[in-house]
UniProtKB/TrEMBL annotation:
Oxidoreductase keyword on record: yes
Keywords, ordered alphabetically: Dioxygenase, Oxidoreductase
Residue ranges of coiled coil: none
GO molecular function: 3-carboxyethylcatechol 2,3-dioxygenase activity; ferrous iron binding
Name of this protein: 3-carboxyethylcatechol 2,3-dioxygenase
């Protein structure tokens, strides 16, 4: 058994958002470095924690956690459509183990995932089907959200299953860090938007274009420090990264969703995925987490971070 963690931010604005050429080159270099680490690790299986952005999961039935037994990519934001290479037998085995371990996960035989799951792999390898995968959705966008303690406990339960599997397992997280996209609230949204949050699957091309234009405009305004969204918060991001590197995962239990949204934006709770991934690795003992890349990219509405971590026993 050998475990490692690969984590990276995603952003819908990576392709067409405002960024200097220097920034784009540095991001590409970061993803290349992550790809190299993943290839060197040679995983038998990938377990990925990631959120959704009201593309595959909706308020009509919103689980806190869901394991995909089969999954397809919707192809939003310049990503590809297609079937994910889900390791269905392992997904079912893991789901049963999680429930036995006190984590009440949902399962889906028809999971639909968006750029939150696939973008980082396409940036690393040009494809999202590089490794056999078990996708695990975490609700990071549709309050009420799971707590950071529950995300930690989910991760630890995944880690225990992975540690007992005898496989080389790469555990991944995609999301965060601080970012405040113009995501509507079901509490205050007008009727039409509210309905989309409840059951907005497969929107019309016109509705999809309007959504894209709204986010692109928000990114362009963010470069100029618009008050309509919170700016990326590099100080918060740095503190979060340092807490991950410390290995003291229980420290995250006191973190509240309210605090994260206030300081790291509406998209900040996507770091629940990072907490779950690093908690999974922590069951294997002390680890060393390398920060591959970080930059606060206002035009992408993203605290853009990339990390790779392995247990210290593995690195000896």
């Amino acid at each position: 058994m050998t475990l490692a963690v690969l984590s990276a931010s995603h952003t819908p604005l990576m392709q067409d958002g405002v960024a200097e050429d220097r920034v784009r080159a540095a991001v590409a270099q970061g993803f290349a470095a992550l790809a190299k680490r993943a290839q060197e690790f040679e995983p038998d299986l990938l377990i990925q924690f990631a959120p959704d952005h009201f593309n595959g999961f909706f308020y009509e039935l919103m689980p806190s956690f869901c394991v995909g037994v089969n999954a397809t990519s919707l192809g939003d934001w310049d990503t590809s459509t297609g079937t994910l290479p889900v390791a269905s037998a392992e997904a079912l085995e893991l789901s049963e183990a999680l429930i036995e371990d006190g984590i009440d996960v949902a399962v889906s035989y028809r999971m639909e995932v968006d750029h939150g799951f696939v973008q980082i792999w396409e940036r690393m390898f040009g494809t999202f089907d590089r490794f056999p995968t078990v996708p695990i959705f975490i609700n990071c966008a549709a309050p009420p959200l799971p707590t950071f303690k529950r995300a930690r406990l989910l991760g630890e339960a995944v880690g225990r299953w992975a540690a007992a599997s005898g496989k080389r397992i790469l555990i991944s997280a995609s999301g965060g860090l601080s970012h405040d996209p113009p995501t509507p609230s079901i509490v205050t949204a007008p009727k039409e938007v509210r309905e989309r949050l409840i059951s907005g699957r497969h929107p019309s091309p016109e509705a999809q274009r309007a959504r894209v234009e709204r986010v692109l405009e928000a990114g362009a305004r963010a470069v100029n420090g618009t008050p309509e969204i919170l700016p990326v918060n590099p100080e918060w991001d740095e503190a979060f990264i340092e807490r991950l590197q410390s290995g003291n995962m229980r420290d995250f239990d006191a973190l509240t969703i309210k605090e994260v949204r206030e300081k790291a934006g509406r998209g900040g709770p996507e770091v629940l995925a990072w907490v779950a991934a690093f908690a999974a690795l922590s069951v294997n003992g002390d680890y060393k987490a390398d920060l591959i890349y970080y930059e606060a990219i206002q035009g992408w509405i993203a605290g853009m971070a990339m990390m790779f971590a392995e247990s210290k026993a593995t690195r000896v």
